[in-house]
Amino acid sequence: MYEKDGESYFIVDGHVHIWDGRASNHKNVHGKQFIDCFYDYHRNLSPEDVIWDYDTYTYYGAERFMKDLFAEGYVDHAIFQATLLSDFYHNGFGQTEEAFGLARQHPEKLTYNHAYDPRNGEAGLEQLRRDAERFNLKGVKLYTAEWHGDSRGYKLDEPWSRRYLEECLELGIKNIHVHKGPTIKPLDRDAFDVADIDKVATDYLDLNFIVEHVGLPRLEDFCWIATQESNVYGGLAVAMPFIHARPRYFAQIIGELLYWIGEDRILFGSDYALWTPKWLVEKFVDFQIPEDMPEYPAITAEQKKKILGLNAASLYGLDVPRQFRLPAASGAGV
């Protein structure tokens, strides 16, 4: 919960991780390239007083995670978004067991989303069924640019990917989070293109496609797709820190999103531990469109409440305490 100027905000951080980027977990040079690229994003887009040292950043663990999100970061509920990267890391990048263990200990605070790769064929479908039961999955996180043997990416509308999406429908996994954002070394830029979102969103209307990182640097493409497809949402992870590093650029991002897809389909995410939620929440609540950008209207407290938590709570069926609900939703779950 965050309070400012008489307003109370229910915070759902829709994009968090516990990862292990230490050298002991690197399978090859690409493991180091990936965590180093993450650290460059962290170091270059964060306020100086919240920059971590490199060793802490490569592995911080559950205790630090809980402190940064819930003790200090105002977060009421957070959603793990798995990142496996099995070709780069011996034990995977995202730490499945540690994250899921925390979610089991704190179900009121944490939801665990796992991942799959459609290039694993029938064996992967069987694994998805087992994972759905074990983790009680409501969502999955997909990395279309992830390497898999000789393959350096896949499209969501390929036949095997469609098989997995159909299985998600059967299993009741409704929230499909897809990394469609900036390139992370050594992954290929074009494998994160957003065009395949358009196709599957049209064909699978009972699934919600949350485009993480709002397609950056393809914001315009994303907006033109999402305005046509009512089951496409924008996750603000990676876009959020520009509120500090490039505030006018952030004003353009949030202004375009509000114009094209509206306040009900935008979700806050810190992408922890790329960034910590505390300063992002504080700066977003304080943020306003510059006066010399009149093409974008002022952002209201109600819009900020939806973006910071109520939209994600609706997607995941979270129980929002009555004092945080908006008047129009006072009789509903959010």
From TrEMBL:
SUPFAM superfamilies in the cross-refs: Metallo-dependent hydrolases
Domain named Amidohydrolase-related: residues: 12-318
Identification of the protein by name: Amidohydrolase
Lineage: Bacteria, Bacillati, Actinomycetota, Actinomycetes, Pseudonocardiales
